Amino acid sequence: MDQWIESILEQFGAFGVGMLMLVENVFPPIPSELVMPWAGYSVSQGQSSFLAVVASGSVGAFVGAYAWYWVARRIGKERLATWVDKHGAWLTISRDDIDQVDRWFEDWGAAAVLLCRLIPGLRTLISVPAGFAEMPPAKFSACTAIGTVAWTALLAVIGLWLGKNYGDLAGPLSWVSSGVIAAMFSVWIYRLVRQHRRHGKPASSR
Fold first, then answer.
1. Distance, C-alpha 187 to centroid of its chain
2. Total Cβ atoms within 10 A of residue 171
3. Poorest-confidence range of 37-41, 133-137, 194-198?
4. Whether the Cβ atoms of residue 126 and residue 101 lie closer than 8 Å to each other
5. Does residue 29 carry a pLDDT above 90?
6. Which of 112, 91, 123, 122 is nearest to 21 (CA)?
7. Separation CA 88–CA 171 (nearest Å)
């Protein structure tokens, strides 16, 4: 996948960053922790503009986050949770995940929407309880935009700094990317198998 990410960035530049970040918010096994450092590295090699990759990555992530917010607001918690029980493993999401971020939102409100944009695993899901609670769109958009820009810029800066200070990091970054992807893919497969086993068990008699 790391080669695929690198290829997308080479072919589409900043626009490709936005596409990948949008997909990352829908299908978490494509992690921003790989996309944005690669984008920053491409900036260090003179292939992209720093402002362009941060802006594009932020827009893509924002659109994905807003999509989850809109879905949650439209269909409500029970309908979404029921769907997640049946199909959520494909997106590495469970009902417990929804309940967890729901509690975060109840405790912290708008601050949770802002801060969770900086926490892997919660960045996307925090949109869901905000939608359930019908958080005002303008407030949700402001908190999401601030947190998203901060996160994408931070990751891009890391890739840019590494590229400028250590030369050709394509090889090492590929190995690191492969390791991260393998670990995340293993977790995804585990959750998928566990979900199918759980739904495959016959209902207990009462």
1. 15
2. 8
3. 194-198
4. yes
5. no
6. 123
7. 34
Around Cβ 131, how many Cβ atoms within 10 Å? 24
**Contact (Cβ atoms closer than 8 angstroms) between residue 22 and residue 16:** no
DSSP secondary structure of 68-133: HHHHHHHH-HHHHHHHHHHHGGGGT--HHHHHHHHHHHHHHTHHHHHHGGGSTTTTTTTHHHHHHT
In this structure, are residues 131 and 69 in contact, taking their beta carbons and an 8 Å threshold?
yes
pLDDT at 204: 43
Report whether 187 contacts 35 (CB < 8 A).
no
For 19-65, give the secondary structure using H, E and C.
Answer: HHHHHHHHCCCCCHHHHHHHHHHHHHCCCCCHHHHHHHHHHHHHHHH
Q: Which residues neighbour 182 within 8 Å (Cβ) at sequence distance 6 or greater?
A: none
If you ran DSSP here, which 8-state letter would residue 134 be given?
T
Tens digit of each residue's pLDDT (9 = 90 or more) over 101-119: 788 788 888 888 888 888 8
CB atoms near residue 28 (< 10 Å): 20
Look up residue 33 and give its two tokens: 């922790």
Predicted pLDDT of residue 177? 58
Give the 3-state secondary structure of residue 162. helix
Distance set, CA 196 to CA 96, 185, 193 (Å): 16, 17, 5
CA-based R_g, the chain, Å: 18
